[in-house]
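Comment thread on ticket #2218

A.B. wrote:
> Attaching the input chain for the structure job we discussed in standup.
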Amino acid sequence: MCGAKPGGPEAAAKPGETTIQGSVVRDGEPVTGYVRLLDSTGEFTAEVPTSASGQFRFYAAEGTWTVRALVPGATADRTVVAQQGGLTEVTIAV
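C.D. wrote:
> Ran it. Output below, let me know if you need it in another format.
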């Protein structure tokens, strides 16, 4: 696993950056684990641990991405389309 620090609402948003952020939940409750960002070809790009409240954030380029949640006992993917300078919110249910 990587040495990244947990993301979440305490991480400062960067104005003008293309941001993908959200949370990982199971039965409506936050789940801790890791979230990976895969490019449009499925190649690994980045990984962050979730915060205690299941939240994560990536700064990425414009385009189509797969966001993969890796939590104890489950894995789930969501495809998102990020717009240049925009904020893309995603909830991943596992």
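A.B. wrote:
> Thanks. Noting for the ticket: The first strand starts at residue 19 and ends at 26.
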